[in-house]
Amino acid sequence: MRWRNGGGPPRVTRSTVRSRHRGGFATAKPPRQRGAQRASPLTPLSPGTDRRIHYLISKGGSEALLQALANAARAEPPAADFGLKVQRLEATDVILSLARKNLGHHLNLTHCLWVLRVCASSVTAGTALGINGAMELLFKVITPYSKRHVRTVRAAIEALAALLKSKSNSRRAVNIGYLRGLLRLYQDWHHNDVSNNYVHIRRGLLICLKHITNIQLGRETFLDSCGMEILFTSVQDCLSCKNLDPIVTTVTQILRKCYPKEPLPLPTVRSSYSFSLPGNVRTEPPCMLLEDDYESDGEEEVEKDLDNDDDETKEEDDDLETDVNKLRSRPVLDRPEEALKQYEAVCPELSHNFQSEEEKSSEDNTENLPSTPSYFIQSATSVKHQNIQRTQSVTVMGPDPGEEDLKVPLQSWTKKEKCRQAVQDADSLEEEDVARSHVLTLCPLPKEIAWYKKMFNTECEASINRSPGGRLKTSDMVRNLLKKHQGNMPFHSPCFYIARAECVKSIPDYKFLAFPDFWGHQPPPYGKPMLERKYGVQRDKVLDDVRRLIQPGDVIGRTVFDLDEPSLGAPDCLTFFSKFESGNLRKAIQVREFEYDLIMNADVNSNQHHQWFYFEVRDMKLAVPYRFNIINCEKFNSQFNYGMQLVMYSVKEALQGRPHWLRVGYDISYYKNHYRSCAAAAGGMRRKSYYTLAFSITFPHEDDVCYLAYHYPYTYSTMMSHLDILEQNRNPKKVYWRQQTLCQTLGGNPCPLLTITAMPESKKRDDLEQFYNRPYVFLMARVHPGESNASWVMKGTLEFLVSSDPIADLLRKCFIFKIVPMLNPDGVVNGNHRCSLSGHDLNRQWLTPSSQLHPTIYHTKGLLYYLRSIGRTPLVFCDYHGHSQKKNVFLYGCSIKETLWQAGCMVDTAVITEDVGYRTLPKILDKVAPPFVMNSCSFLVEKSRESTARVVAWQEMGILRSYTMESTYCGCNHGLYKVSKSLALPRTKGLQLGTQELEEMGSKFCLGLLILHLKSLPCSKKVMAQAALLLDLEEEITDLRAHRSVIGVFRGFSCRSSWWGCILGLDSQK
Ligand SMILES: [Zn+2]
Q1: What is the mean pLDDT of residues 283-297?
Q2: Considering 581, 595, 727, 966, which one is annotated as catalytic?
Q3: pLDDT tens string 326-368
Q4: Percent helix, strand, coil in the chain (nearest 5)?
Q5: What are the DSSP calls for 918-952, one per residue?
Q6: Is 966 one of the annotated active-site residues of the chain?
Q7: How far is the CA of 262 from the centre of ligand 1 (A)?
Q8: Where are the compositionally biased (Acidic residues) regions (predicted)?
Q9: Hey, CA dihedral for 383, 389, 392, 393, is it positive or negative?
Q10: Which of 29, 526, 674, 1020 is 20–30 Å from 99 (CA)?
């Protein structure tokens, strides 16, 4: 509909309004009094005087009134409901006619326009003004371009911007052709305002455009009118001048909004990997992406996004469980009672017969495993405080097999056979004859042979003959590498890794090993501070993206890697690869010479959950900054905007003795892009926006092989080979260790269950009794495969638990640890971020896990049920996770009272009694673990979390201390790691966590458990004495609990590190 020639829109005249609302004036509310002086200009509008005003106005207008209104309108801030009041008083039309009459009188006109602007801040008033021709009037004032009466022009533009907030006004403005007019006018101002004196006018015009392009019709017309080109070109002149930031920001917002929406460049968003589920469970059909799904729906580009970070970030109070009966109920068993009997087998510690211990201990050594790294599990240094002096008597212990320097050739290693056997057993169990005894090869190493020879054979450096193709055979390479690489990586063995990796079952049936997982990672000597965000980095990236559309000259747009088309290869570009354990990269598109768009693969049997990436890149040039854009991120925000970097591993660096995953990348930015999913892909909901993670990297070497990942990778094979090393290197006289298979996963990988405690002191009845009656602690990790940080924390826990550290020794005497170190092996193997092969989030299945679809959850829960049924409910339950939106490390627990209080419910404390013991462990960790922050902990029970491990273990098993431990992917803004240790950058924001800090967190968690035990459980004098001895506090041990005021008096104890002070001090804080 166009009104331009039809005499304008239907007019609502003053007389019609008045006749409709006769007598309505008296009911209008008086304007809010805003102080004695301020009240006077508005007084004429108070009830009772309105008729007089109308009379005055009808007689030609009153200067005084206009002045009063103008003053009121200019008052900052104007009363929020001013416009509404004016409309109620039916004065909008009056003001409009005043403006019309004053078109020649610029001072009066300006005053009218100010009033108009404020009136238009009410959308209803603005809409009425629009209907009555306000925009036509304003357009007459602002066009054509002229520098005369700038004040009036500015007032008109601002009033127009206010009017265009109304969608119907915007629609009308587009129909009349004002969008093109505004663009032309903006260009005129831009070209003529060389000294930047009229920035407010230019910005005002941009705000008009910004409001108009909120509607679909506006965006379409903007594109048809070359709006993208006009704004993109003009903004180039503004980038270097900081005063013009308001202009650049607004232009960037408009360009982003109007960039034509597209589906991801994929045939389907569904994962490239699919898995047919057992039974009759059907997976959803793939969702095809059709071009015409786009730009059809959604009138408005809403900037609101769903927070789909399910990692317990939800803080809305309405999600809290407020049903007291539900909170206090104890659900019935989800399976027949008889089914629990089977878990007796995975509690061998309860029936262990130590009388035949000689036999057992010899069995421990019969496997004659090689000790490639030959690393004796030392006292976990991370727990030791430098001021703590240990007495010799505590640290001295018998010879340990780990100390012998075992160097057995690879071929004699029998574990590999054992592992193969296990795989075959698993196969026959499933009646599925899959002969998967494949041999894995290492991804080819850097091409440059000269360099390789230099590394390993210095004398023949001068006489190098290139073999045809320039590559060495991988097997020779590996053999030579291993010869060179003799056990200097703590807790890692390449041979163990290969052996384990060969047994892994994956959907893509991996043929290659990623070098970092095979070779190992050593934490670098220094932690890296969080990245300082460069000014304007995001807008630079966005403008660069828009440039693809405006200046497509240098756009290549060539797919160079595609998981669905493995044969793809292209010259003169980077080479990508991701088909290895935990690998995730689906597609790479070379956008420009040194810029690549990357697409992550969805979780198996799913069309979402993109966050984790891990891929190989090679054939890079030296000293060239490469830009990468990961274009299908889903979360609305990311720590990448707050100092987090991704990690990189360089093969050349590793071979030169620096095998590190390092935090890398600069110009990092995370922002919403123009890709949208179709409604079907978003689960039938509104179509979903995607986000880009953009970063730049300059690689350290030419023709290197580098690996990039979201976070420090930790594969299933890494875990399995780590367990092999731990088992082999523990002291069997002291450490009771059993590794069993809890169950097979859907994908046919064993899910290990560990039991760790101390061997009984002797075979005397009392000691055996003590052994059998130790309370349980239940730990698990990595239910979410993308949360590799959880595995590093678990690694720290495990290494500490089996270590010879006297604190660990004491801790083992206090507890029996049941540990499931990786609850979702299939997800980890196949590079998922969140789900298992069933496409389900396993941490939402705890209420009613299916034995078929969620076996690891089903059996872990079964084991917990079993322990409860025999009266051995664990004292502490903790599930290790990673958190992508927050910094530091913290716990989520469960409390009825805190939940009800938070929800604002009345709590009858007489009826609800609750042990506050759930707060003790986090309080201890706040003192002993540097990255841990008590203030970030929460003990609320949310409805949306009712099926998580934490809530189910608390509610169904009755475990008071049931927790989720969340570790940041980023770093710390609190505590010891708030300040970077690096001397080069003394004043930085804080440290990004490295694997060392994550592992330390795992060991400090153990220390926290010991202190919890000393505080909360009846301890024998012997244990207390030992604990005191460890800290060289023999004198103070007597009457320990009575001396609470002595905290901090002990020499050499800082508040944070003093675990002993912690024991003493926490009681008083309770
Ligand atoms: Zn998680």
Answers
A1: 43
A2: 966
A3: 888 888 899 999 999 999 999 999 988 887 654 444 444 333 3
A4: 45, 15, 45
A5: GGHHHHHHHHH-TTB-GGG-B---BGGGTTSHHHH
A6: yes
A7: 31
A8: 294-322
A9: negative
A10: 29
